[in-house]
Structures are given as structure tokens and as C-alpha cells.
Amino acid sequence: MKWAVRFILIAAMIFGMINHYVMLFRSTPFVPWDIFSIKTASSVAGNYDFMPTARVIIVTVIYIVLVVLAHFMNYRMEMKIKLRLIPGAIITVVLCLFVSALQNEDFQTDNYLYPFLFTPAYMTKVNGMAVTFAMDMAYIAVDKPAGYSEENARQILDEYKNDDNGQKEDASEESDTNNNEKMPNIIVIMDEAFSDLSVLGNFETNKDYMPFVHSLQNGADNTITGYLNVSVCGGNTADTEFEFLTGNTMAFLPAGSIPYQQYIKDTTPSLASYLKGLGYETYAQHPYNASGWNRETVYPLLGFENMAFAPDYLSRDVIRNYISDKTSFEKIIETYENKPEDKPAFIFNVTMQNHGGYTDTYWNFTNTINAKGLGNDALNQYLSLIKLTDSDLSSLISYFKEQDEKTIIVFFGDHQPNDTVASSVLAENGMDYSNLSTEETYLRYQVPYVVWANYDIQEAQNQDMSVNYLAANVLKTAGVPTSDYQNFLLELQKDYPIISAIRTEDVKADTDEEMLKKYKILQYYRLFDQKGDN
Predict the structure, then answer these.
(1) ∠302-303-305 over CA atoms, to 5°?
(2) pLDDT of residue 168 exceeding 50
(3) In this model, does residue 510 exceed pLDDT 90?
(4) Is the CB of residue 343 less than 8 Å from the CB of residue 279?
(5) CB-based contacts of 1, cutoff 8 Å, min separation 6
(6) Burial zone of 490 (CB within 10 Å; 0-12 exposed, 13-18 middle, 19+ buried)
(7) CB contact set of 401 (below 8 Å; sequence gap of 6+)
(8) How many CB atoms within 10 Å of residue 430?
(9) Residue 117: pLDDT above 70?
(10) Each residue of 344-385: pLDDT tens digit?
(11) Helices and strands, counts by H and E, the chain
């Protein structure tokens, strides 16, 4: 008995401690599919502050005392080993039945359990951590949507094969050198944790922390700006990456899941594979470990022909413990200058400089931004990092202004920083980060984006959307032929400008939901059944 009790106590303590730190660093609770992220989490763990709070110390001491007291439990079942298997099997069956009941909608309703995955922190607060974890296990696999069949999905796609001019959308067979010369280079930068926290409310700083991006938002030539509504906050970068590259949405997948680790096991249609079919040379770049979010495996499955990770950045500047955005952007320029002359380039660059945490001090980094009156050093460090990125983006765009080849640059953040950074801004504006209203929660999932070109495009401001639409809009702006799926997304966007794991916004109350049903069918088809096509 004593060892059984000790096992349960130690397991519960470890489980609770993991959830505590996941909540602290990512602002969302520990979920079953986080187990697949152990390698990624361990690679960045050294940059977070694990200093235990008084509460952590007290709870840990209580558990240790209970483990010691278990020594005095001398009860033992006098059974042969084979007979002991019988109550063990019964307990296992009972636990499985109980977990199954927790995942049943009627049981959840009858017992006042909160079932909505899109608010995982609140779900854990209401149900408790262990019950929520058990409920989440039902969503490790993705069920087929109602009315799904491969044939039905293909029929839906057939409806969107032609563009407004009657031309075939999949122009890969028509691609030749002349067409390639007309197509611009497409450079996409998904910048780690880049956001403008002023969306949460007003706060004063000693100087502007993103003057260049703000100047673009004020109406620069050949520039489109707005805010992206993302599905994650404080972490899970790969989900924003997934939504942009595939046009799929996390809204139809389990909350907190990581498609890169759970679902992409074979060739999967993406922006990279589509542009490769149009004659683009495709590059994926990330100045950190190749194993992060399983990228070294996933990128080739998405159609990237060339990959660069931390070891490939031979000449580098390091900010805190990460390769700088300056170095990352220099890699983009190097790639552009060495690409095949007869091919346009699609470069997808995921930065690392601004990754959390933000509470440590560093010999190679000094804060330049101070949020007046808030007394939050983590916020000051974060804003100082954003200021560096803003300056480096300005330099990158200045370089491409001088280039003859048509080039379009897309820049956006993957998510806002965690609550340690944002809490003081929220408090300054009368909000409690642990008790946000629905509308206030939406603000935590908005990041700025910029589309800039070194040739004439139609300028626009305040073009807000969700991430799943951005790639299709970029191709439309760049004059690159769009695929049947991208045409569907552009049509869907007219009725549903925002679809994310956090919110779905339609343009009018009586919007026909038939398009949403089609979207679910097409996403399942492209993610699980449509292999190698676009």
C-alpha cells in the first residue's frame, strides 16, 4: 500500500508542476498532445525562469510530507501475483469507463462540466486539471466531418478551379521561363512573438517601439497592413505556421493540438508545394534547432526543397541566447542573391530572436524601451526586442527597394507574449489577465501584419483577417495564379473574415453556414486524404 500511495502522490505532484509551469510560460494548460512537444520544450527551457513561488514551495513540501508519512502505511494484500492482477484489471476497466463518461456530452451536461476547448485555461479552472486532461484525450484523433467523402471534397474543389477570368487556377502545367519572369519573389517572415501590445489598450513608453511598422500602417506606398487573428497566445508557434502555409484552420482541430507533430505524416498540400508547382524555388529557414516542432520532417512533406537551420547560419549575431533577426534577415538576402536566376524564390523565414522568457538579464542585451509607470521588466525587455526587429525589417525592405526583380515581402507575428509580459498593460487598462471577458480575450490573439512590394500594388490599411486567409490574399495581390482551394478561401472570407480557434466572425447574422461545412470537408480532405496534390 505504501508504494502505491507514494506512486500516486509523486505522479500527481509532477503532473501538477508541469501544468503550473506550462500555464506560467504559455498561458494555457498542459494538454495530452503536449507530450509530443517534449523535445521542443526542452530545447528552450533554459531561457525561462523556473524560480519557484511561495505557493509552489508550500505545495511541494506538503507532497513530500505525505510521501514520508506513507512509510507508516503497512497494509499489504496477501495475494499471489496472479490474483493481484484481478483487482488491477478491474480498476483499469473502471478508470477507462470513467474517462469515457467524462468525454460523453450528456454526462458533461448532467455534471455541469465545461466542455469548450477554445478556452482551455477556463476549462481547467472550472473542471479541474485531471478531469480536463481526461476530457481532452478524446480529441487526439480528428473525426471526419458530417457528410465527408473524398469524392464530395473533390467535387467542391472542382467548383473553384476557374478564376474570375475563366483561367485554370492550377497553372503549374503552364509554368515556363517567361511566366516565371513575371512572377515575383515571395518572402514571408513569421517573426517570433512579434506583436503590438497597444491593441490591449494605451500605455506610455519612452519612445516608439516599432516606428517603422507604424509608418507602414499609416499608409505607405505599395503596402497592405492590418491585424491577423491567430489561434494561439504565448506559445505553440507551429500552429500559426500551419494555418498560414496550408490555409487550414485550428478551429476544426483539438484546442492546443500541434498538427506538425500529430497529423502531418505524409506529403500534405501547402503554399510551398503549390508554388513549387508553379516553378518557384522553395526555401524554409529557421535559425534554431531543426527538431523544433518536428520541422526537419514536416518541411519536406509540405514541399520545401531547401532548408536552413541554426548550423547553417555560419556568420551570426546573438541577442540574449538566440540568433538575431538581423542575422535571420541577412540569410534571406544571401538566399535571394544565390537563387537560380531563371526561377523566382519563395522564402519562408521563421525567426527566433524574440522568443520568451523575458525575465532574465543578459550581458549582450540592454533594454532601450521603458513602459512608464508599469514597473514590468519583462515588458520592457520584450518591447526592446521588438524595437530591434522593427529596425531590422526597415533595413531589409530598404535593400529590396533597390532590387530590379519584383519582390513581395510578407511580415507578421505568430502570437502575443505570455501573461507575464502582457498583464501590466491589461491592468493599466482596467483588465485582469486571469478573468478576461470574451471581447477582451480576442485582443490577446491579434498581431500586426505587413505586405510590402518593390513594385506597384494596391495599397490598403486595416485589412484584418485570420491567418488561414493570408497566403491566398498575398498571391492575389502579387498577381500569382491561385489554386482551387485558395479560391475557395477567398470566397469564404467574404462571409467569414475571421475563422480561428478563438473566434469565428461572420459579416451578417443570417450568413449561410454551408460554406463552413464545405471548409471542414475540404480541410479534412487536404490534411488526411489528399496527398501530394494542390
Answers:
(1) 135
(2) no
(3) no
(4) yes
(5) 73, 74, 75, 76, 77
(6) middle
(7) 454
(8) 8
(9) no
(10) 999 999 999 999 889 999 999 999 999 999 999 999 999 999
(11) 21, 12
Residue 57 clears pLDDT 80, i.e. is over it: yes
The amino acid that residue 18 corresponds to is I
pLDDT at residue number 176: 37
- Per-residue pLDDT reduced to its tens digit, 20-34: 888 777 667 787 777
Query: How many Å apart are CA 154 and CA 533, to the nearest integer?
Result: 11
pLDDT-derived band at 74 (thresholds 50, 70, 90) equals confident
Beta carbons within 8 Å of 331's beta carbon, 6+ residues apart: 285, 287, 308, 312, 313, 349
Q: Residue 195: which residues within 8 A CB-CB, separation 6 or more?
A: 386, 413, 415, 416, 417, 446, 447, 448
Selection from 231, 47, 25, 255 nearest residue 137 by Cα: 255
How many other C-beta atoms are found inside a 10 Å radius of the C-beta of residue 339?
Answer: 19
DSSP 159-183: TTSB-TTS-BS--GGG--HHHHHHS
Measured between alpha carbons, how far is residue 434 from residues 373, 423, 502 in Å? Answer: 21, 9, 16
How many CB atoms are closer than 10 A to CB 442?
17
Amino acid in position 369: I
Query: Average of pLDDT values for 93-100?
Result: 93
Here the cell at position 56 is 509552489
